[in-house]
Design brief:
Layout lengths: L1 H25 L22 E5 L4 E5 L3 E9 L5 E10 L7 E8 L9 H7 L6 E8 L2 E10 L4 E10 L2 E8 L3 H8 L3 E2 L1
Antiparallel strand pairs: 1-2, 2-10, 3-4, 4-5, 5-9, 6-7, 7-8, 8-9
Amino acid sequence: MKNIHIILIVSFFLLVLGFIFLQKEKFPIATNSAVGTSEKLATAEEIPMTYSNPRQYFSFQYPNEYKVNEMIDRDSKGLVQGEIVLVQAKSGDRERGLQITILPFDETDTTLTKERIQKDIPDMQINDAQTIVLGGVDALSFSSNNSDFGGASKEVWLVHNNFLFQISTHASNTALVNNILSTWQFQ
């Protein structure tokens, strides 16, 4: 009689394990209940940070291992004449990051072209120029030779609400720029 009880208990236990195994194959157990997927929880380094600019009403996400600094140029009345937003690696590696220069642009909103930029900066090298959409606004993406970035650079320029946005980085940071720009939004 004891053997039958042991066999029944072992059989029941194996049956339960088999059922759990089959259900797990059909419905993976979520490790992130808020998301409801079987994906692992993100580490603090993987969670994107969000930068929001209250003066120009734009935002973007950037990796946690970076930091953002703003430099604002104001006139004697306190009005913003320009600003620079720096996205820099927390490690201090100066070649990892990007710079966003924002300046007043006195023409009506316009889509920038290679020819339009070279009208003001005739010696500027503009290669591989293509129009992209950034936060719903047409922008010009190109490679250049920017001395501020030690030579080869990746550039994205656009005009929005009478301000010129110049997004610049080392050419080696193209993936970082593309990831940040894919989250860019104008409010």
